[in-house]
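Session log. Operator J.P. requested a structure for one protein chain; no other inputs attached. Running the standard single-chain path with token output.
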Amino acid sequence: MRWLVGWSSTAAGAARTGTAGATGYDGETLQPVGSQLLWGDPDPLWAVGDWRPDEVRVVHADPQNRIAVLGICGASDDELRRGLFTARGGALRHLTTWPGSYTAVVQVGRRITVCGDLAGARPVFHTPWAGGTAYATAALPLADLVEANLDFTHLAALLAAPDVPAALRETTPYEGVRRIPPGHALVLRAGAREVAGYEQVASLAVAAPPADPDRAVDAVRDALVEAVRTRLSAPRHVPDLDPGPVPGMGPAERRAARGMPVPGIGADLSGGPASGALALLAAGLPGRPGTLLGHGTGAGERLLAVTFNDLAVAGHEAELERAGALAANPRLHHVVVTGGEETLPYADLDGPLTDEPGPSLVTAARHRARLAAGSADHFTGHGARQVLDAHPARLADLLMDRRRRHLVRPVAALARADGSVLVPARVYGAARRLARTPYRAGLETLAERLMRRRFDEPKGAVGASLAALTWAGPGPAARWLTGEALAEVSVLLQAEAVRSGTGAQRPGDYRARAALARHAADLRVLEQAAEIRSQRLHAPFLDNQVVRACRDLPEALRVQPGARAAVLRTVLAGSGVTDLPPGWGAPSHASSAAAARAGLRAAADSLVDLFSTPLLADAGLVEARVVRKALRAAAAGEPLPLDGLADLVSLELWLRRLLSRRGTCWTGTPSRARAVPSGIQPRRGALTPGA
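Structure written below.
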């Protein structure tokens, strides 16, 4: 894990502090473990973890005005300096418009500004501490700092309504530690904190002006190409040297066995449009990689394209064939990683502690097997579906803008998939109801559903679309929560509904942003759980500028069937890539549900043992016998929501790892200075209030 951490002290506290750190319980200096100091008191900032030298940059205008950028940022030092001068006047948005994925921290006198990203992949957390405010890009260090207990209300909401921002609010699993929402910045002035938004919010009073589809797609292409180019132009890093040969192993096998990535640039190549587009862009841009042997400086370095072939579950033949056709490009070096039952979900549940829980914990070993064969810098297509596809609720946005004719093609596609002539009327009716339903009423409806335990399981594509045509819906794990946990979340939603008033948001845009934040948070968990030493995963689709460009795509364009593949095909054509295999961009018929069910069936006994005495039951969130019964039923083939079981298992795993950890994120502190110092005390009938 890598993060930055610092704090803003009051004037009185700053006068007492003489060194970079704070005074601990016994007068010792308090500092993060394994950190490098970026600047000192009275408001120190540290970078913690295995940051590369080029990933940490600090530019000074004078001793009281400076900017730190951590991550992949395409801005030059002069651009950072100009951004610092502009930020002195209070402007924030320009700090988030440079290509790449990074966190910017600006100090102007005693005012500190920390900018989060638009997707939520690089979040910012804060908590009151020592009369001021401590902040970090990870929640666990702050929880250790203040000895935070678990926020059981947040954990209940994470299971009952994970896609509803009003339920999760700005809380974290740690009581008192809060996150800033995507598209916001944390502003600290001598310990006082403020959360300020830097992105414009769409108005309901006036419909957005119709955007030119061609220009919008060109903007996506420019942003995506610049995101890839920024990473290619960064310094190359070679992993630790191979200590020597192993009998019977080649160099690639030796590196994989020792958990070392291959030097250079690589990318996933699943056969889908997102990973394929990134691999072709990275290999086709001028410079390395992708230069043919004998052409230019550094020629002969090919992009390493990694394809995962699941031997335990059939149905991926078409995608593998397309991946093989793409890999025939001489600029690519294709590697196929095979996996059997040992790489199924739930097969290997051992792993490191992540900052927060997430459903990716049950599939981390599966991803680690693929990434172990990857490069030191590895491109992934994560986030493309969330930023390019249309959430079904966007149909209501079109009705609000009186663009009914654009509903014809998506509704017709659903009718063909279902084979019923009643589908158009049902979908149109649901979209019309959503367009006329206020945000407050949507939250109240969800609160009532949770209280009355109404969890209707949608069937087929039409059922899922109809279920998504609401302001908010229950999570797949909600059906297994206790009545007390559901009641707590229901009361929370009712309070949020009253606080929100009428709400001035578009339902489709609201649901799409929530889905993107949920995916980005889970991707962050995946990066930590499946981390390979000396490897960096790159998700250009989650960069700020790419997210902005995708948000400017006309809704009428993105709701059409196959819109994501069409946009990426146009992006590649504009970049000079036109030779795509037949069927490229076709939707995959091989669902991950088949692998999840196979893994659940193979690991049923160990999962039942996991819930023999679960910590979730001690927290009052579930009843152990109910979860064990659901696990046995799902392993036997009953149609239960597998995503909900993954949420339960991953949260139980995370709690066990958190409570079994040793040590803390800080030096100079006694052993009691850590998160959840007293563990989970068995409780029944009530949950602790949220922060």
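Operator note: The longest helix spans residues 507-529.
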